[in-house]
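Exercise 3.2. Students should predict the tertiary structure of the chain below and write it as structure tokens, then compare their answer with the key that follows.

Predict this chain's 3D structure.
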Amino acid sequence: MIATRWIWFTFALIVFAIAWPYSERLRLDRSLERMFPRNDADRLAFERLEEEFGVSHFLVFAYRDAELWNADGSGIERAAQIRKEIESIPGVIYALDLSRINEMLTNFRGPDALLGQLTGKTPIPPLLDPKNRLAREYRELFVGQTHAKESDLVAIGVLLASDASRSTNIKPDVPGDRNAIDARTSADPLVALRAMTTRVPGGLLVGHLAMVDEGFREIEQDGNRLALYSTISLSLLMLMGFRSLRWTLIAVIVVQWSLVVTRAILVLVDWELTMVSSMLSSIVMVVGVATTMHWMLGYQHDYERTPSNDRGFLRARSALQSSCLRLWQPIVWACVTDAIGFGSLMLSRVGPVQDYGSMMAIACGVVLAGIFMILPALALCGTGHGSVSPGWDTYRLGHVPGEAYMAAWLQSILRWACRNRAIVLAVTLLLFIVAALGSMRLRVETDFLKNFQSTSPIATAYRAVESELGGAGIWDVMLPAPQSITEEYFKAVEALEKDLLSIEIPGAESLRLTSALSLADTDRVAREASVLRMVPIEARLIGMRQSMGSFFDTLLSGSGAGRQLRIMLRSRERSEAEQKDALIAAVQKTVRLHLQRPEWQWAVSQNDPTSLGNSPRVVISGYYVLLTRLVEHVVADQWLSFLVASLGIAIAMAIAIRSWKLALIALIPSALPNMVVLGVLGWSGTAVNLGAAMIAAVSMGLGVDSSLHYLFKYREERREGKSVMQALSAAQAETGLAVVMATLALVIGFSSMALSNFLPTVAFGTLAAWTMVGSLIGNLCLMPAMLYCLEKD
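Answer key:
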């Protein structure tokens, strides 16, 4: 391999040149429903609802107007102006606000309006008329939909066209780049609506589409930023620690080559990045640097022991060759165990987690190939006959500051652990029991808003909606409707809504539906007008369709057989997971029981006999339901992923080390920190989000890397006839520093994720960093103690 290094390096350059244009085509999949398997019941229900009503394309634009209800109608006029500006945005097909309701009421005006026109007196807007009973009813009906009851918050419902997709290959806005901003605005109505929030006083944009899109926007921004931070921090670690520009560049080049090739492979197999894929670059950086560092320290060890006065090429080649012969097996098996740890995530029922596991398993293989193709050529290039100062422009590496003290410290830890092995093992057993009990108390974080920093615009907007408009959790019930709508059918729907609104889930703060709105409510209020009371219901529906425009089609779909009616539900988003589950289950049960009543079946089937018994067409779904289920699936699946990762890694290590006993010994120091981290989360009552739920399997794979290097050295010393303590001392001396430095690289790489604006990324990085610290303690203290107890001289 070393003799043909330039052939392999040339091949790597060719692969990079081919992969580069493909890597630029990698896209981000923003759809929420695709996070679930194709046959998942929640996904199928959402797709049915989306097919009928396009509910994911509905947003709420809110602003503040203390003069909304001025008798001169200026507040209503401002609402109309803002609504018309929204409707002028490409991709917006309709907006519903108070001015629309005022226009509808204008059509119902009676003799008073005609008398006002004849006398030249300007009539008061009907919506503001205190004597207009119908206006009062409509104002009350649309509380929480178009305005707040006890504040100055005004809301405009915005319906986007189903094909107004946000482009996933447009790069994030560049400050000052007017063309880039205009391009995004024309391609994405969400960008234009967000821009309006900065111009309109108190402007807010809410809706699950906006919230999920905001999450993806932050994920896109995180990708390059986190990769840059981790690259700089890890490069500085290598540069300042070993004073070797050569090896620092080697690590960076290997990582960047691996990223480009991995992204190209994903494009070729038609995969897209998903919600958790912003960590791809950072994790590849961490894996690449940690693996390179093990080889680098092995090279340094052999370089120092090469019996030659030559500081040049021959000595470097000898050191590189001997270190490769010693380390290629642990390097290969470390990448294999990394891939197994990531690959176990493919057992999850959540699409982004599955995809992330697959992507990282591929990336581990690419990193391995990149190291062996790129490192030899770059490590031996040049003359090496410059300055003799360690590291900067010679083949020699500098020593880590305080390396001698660290070596003595590592030996002290070894002696203490072996001498007090009973205490070490007892503490380990106690930690395991406490952690296991704590992990059984894990709570799931289903409030998707808590994925964002509290100061982010989307969190601020949702807090306002939650407190002033009656709740930010919006979901739907889709019911079968007869070919011709009757008053009896609408009365049955109203009865169902009444039952739904009576549901109450107990808790620290009880949870209930704050609103249930459908066309049945709109028609009930319309019947209050004397001019409409005697009009047939189908004629009233035609009038509502004309007044409400395309918004009407989001409440009643189709015509004839297969017609569907939608009830819009609203509840508090910021609630406990158990309460949300209970509320969803209670709604499902209430709807199911209601549809079994004779009066309901008669109302549906009186002019459509084929509709009788069509309850399977009932769908209860929406973003509220999907987001509640999302993290629950991840948490439920994490134990399966963790067990499979542990079993797969144990088998791989047994094959690598050729000893089941050593493999199981190496597994414990990596498994225990994961249990402790999850146990701490459980005992502290910290809710587990999407990022925290993935750390067990991932950290398991990365944590055993150092165990492998340690055990390979220990086994090598034992084969030479050394005692257990002598072998442990040699392994601690040679691999101990590499274990410490590689773990430090992992901790720095993961800690860079704490700079993310997306809190699952922060949780993943922070908890993984703590897990790596625990694995370091286990590898340097617990594993030697177990080996000293179980191995015989």
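Discussion points: The two ends are 38 Å apart (CA to CA). The first strand starts at residue 58 and ends at 64.
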